[in-house]
Amino acid sequence: MHVKPISQHFNDFVIERERARCINCEVCVRQCSYEAHFWDEARQFVVHDSARCVGCHRCAAMCPTSCLTIRKKPSDFRDNALWTSTYIKHIFKQADTGGVLLSGMGNPQPKPIYWDNMLLDASQVTNPSIDPLREPMELRTFLGAKPDAVDFVHTPEGPRLKQPLPPQLQLEYPIMFAAMSFGAINFNLHVAMARAATELGICYNTGEGGLHPDLYQYGANTIVQVASGRFGVHKDYLNAGAAVEIKVGQGAKPGIGGHLPGEKIDEEVSRTRMVPKGSDAISPAPHHDIYSIEDLLQLIYAIKESTRYRVPVAVKIAAVHNAPAIASGIVRAGADMVVIDGFRGGTGAAPTMIRDNVGIPIELALASVDNRLRDEGIRNHASLVVAGGVRCSADVVKAIALGADAVYIGTAALVAVGCTLCGRCYTGKCPWGIATNAAQLKKRQNPDVAAQRMANLVRAWGHEIQEMLGGMGLNSIESLRGNRDKLRGVGMNEVELSVLGIKHAGL
Amino acid sequence: MQAPRDFWHFEKDISGCGVFGVIDRARRLIPGSEPIAAMCTMHDRGNGLGGGFAAYGIYPDRADWYAFHLMCDDRDALERAESVITQFHDVRHSEPIPTRKVASVKNPPVVWRFFVTPKANRPAWATGDEADYMVGTVMHINTRVPGVFVFSSGKDMGAFKGVGFPEDIADFFRLDEYHAHMWTGHNRFPTNTPGWWGGAHPFTLLDWAIVHNGEISSYGINKRYLCQHGYECTLMTDTEVVAYLIDLLIRKHGLTKREASWVFAPPFWDEVDRMPEAEREAFKALRMVYGPALLNGPFAILVTDSKGMMGLNDRVKLRPLVVAEKGDRVFMSSEESSIREVCRDLDRVWAPKAGQPVIIDYLPQGGAE
């Protein structure tokens, strides 16, 4: 019996090993970066300590004899609707350490998920549904500011534009890979996202960690991010991508900065971020040159100047209470794209209390922002991209019907390469080789395989979106965009329906 | 314009239909009996819940005046409308629209026509041109004056419509007594709205008239797009958006009919991608800027104005449209049979391809043939 703090006895998972099938091959020992499995020298077989298990399922997935099962620990505290085990365990941990509770990935709390309370329409009789296997079904999307009207010169050869449109990002699917910085996830996955985005004709976002020199070749499919820490931001970086995104906030931690621990800053991360190796990379909560909307305007135009107005500039905010007014200000400040990240948005690390209690659902924020921009007559001046909790193609379709031009997927892209949402990204020990820069872990992600899996995911969703569009009798995504007539609510109250701007099912 | 409260709480009409149009490019007059006979052959395309006609060149003696056709619940409603019209316009002539009693047309509204010109000294706040002023009047009456609906407002043209089969409506409005150089007709098969006189086709605004067979599945976004540009959809039917989009794209944004047809039924991207660069950029711009105005869903549509007629199908041709020529006459119809009914011997008959507009303009006046 070894002595450990009481909090560690109340572990979340138990490892079950079918002894009869275990061949003591030690794969689990090598796979578990949390050292939950180990070789017992005295007894000469593999044993485990469930208290160290984070529930990532890496060992069970790799075990050659399938002898491992990871279960939630069945022992329960006495029933208490208020004092659930989550809060009891939080207090034990904080009493041990005096520290802020940390979490990885998005808000897991049982708050309303409006995607699930919205249902889509389909054609019956009065308009024919369209079969995407036989007919064209267009998902191509352009992000950027659109003028109010097209200005043509009429020539004998046909109409010609008097002047080119503002810069646009052309996407073959209304889906992009969300900002996940180099450092938070490793180089292999950045390569994978870049290759997948290029193959798909979409974009991935660098996140705030700069752009590795080897990835400049994928610039046409890259959105470069400028966040409060300004890591890796320089003129070549700004000009390397197809768009620049100013990150003001993140759905998982609105109002909070970021902190990449020094342990994750290896040689390559250091070079790309332009910070010393081994030193913490701290992103301040606000940009210290943006204390107001007029400051944001200056930064937007500073970036437009330094990119010679060649690329659209996006501004990303977390979905907060006043999102519609803020989004309106952002559009009027000259942004070509507004990105809204909902309270389910993922993260590599966030204070648990912030992640679980700050911000609002993306569905509601999206609907209100779209309404607001239309009411002000400026909806076409910027594209609207949403992020934070998009799990499947139906969520994408619902987001677009509510008014989004495109969505970002972060968590979904990581799940495609193995993530099981164990939520310990901030430890740098990710056994799936995702949220880690440790050499022996990150090599678990082969960039070619990962790129293929990410591309497969988006392609699969694309097929499903086409099927749903065709079912509604539409053959182009623009006819779905903002078309709330295609949505009905179930199990929602009047206020929720009116914020979403949809009718209840049956009406 | 700010979206109306509860803007999503609308009933959208869904209907199948038959459409017919005939134009004489040399402006020779066509008797009303011809479109009526054509519509009769397509009786089964409707269910008696809506029929209507638009006729161009029917008021030659009053061609410089805007002809307002009104349908009113009762005399009081008509008085309310008249007070609005006289406030903003000089009424040159005012009379009931001639009708006859028809057994199958139940409870018709009071129908009246005013021939007006906008007041010379318009209110200072009425900025914009004369057309804006006229559209403003129509919108105001239709949305703010209870019990009244302006169903036609162009010059030297008129719409006649109501609840009933088109032949009954023609009988009611005595259309056999009119002669026009362009006619369109419509037979309606609504599936979900109670028959309402205003909901029948054609839909008109100024001298534009639209008859439409189809369902506009993109209605939800077309409507919001129009709202952003100051048009409030009130008629609970999807065809309304076509009339307003035409007004926005052609009158306000200066697109040609052909360019507007590329907005409504754009070529597919794989075709655009193969175009020479300058052309490709023009088509991309149209699609990017006017994507919310794309009419998605099955449709065959006839758009008429004082310059001529345009027939258009959706981009995958999910509704029938046949065009035929005989001398200066051009016919467009849901069914060839209806054209053959009024003109057996045709020079040419063809079915336009998906998304390809057929634009027939009048011959230049005086220089005909």
The helix/strand order of chain B is EEHEEHEEHEEHEEEEHHHHHEEEEHEE
The chain-level structural class of chain A is alpha/beta
Per DSSP, the total helix count of chain B is 10
Q: What is the share of helical residues of chain A?
A: 25-40%
Question: How far apart lie the N and C ends of chain A?
Answer: 65 Å
Main sheet attributes: strand count, strand direction, barrel closure of chain B: 7 strands, antiparallel
Residue runs with pLDDT of under 50 for 5 or more positions of chain B? none
Strand order of the largest sheet of chain A: 11-21-20-18-17-14-13-12
Mean pLDDT of chain B: 92
Greatest contact pair?
A-B, 51 and 55 residues
Strand tally of chain B:
18
Residue-averaged pLDDT of chain A, rounded? 95
Continuous helix count of chain A: 15
Number of DSSP strand runs of chain A: 23
Whole-angstrom Rg of chain A: 24 Å
Round the Cα radius of gyration of chain B to an integer and report it: 20 Å
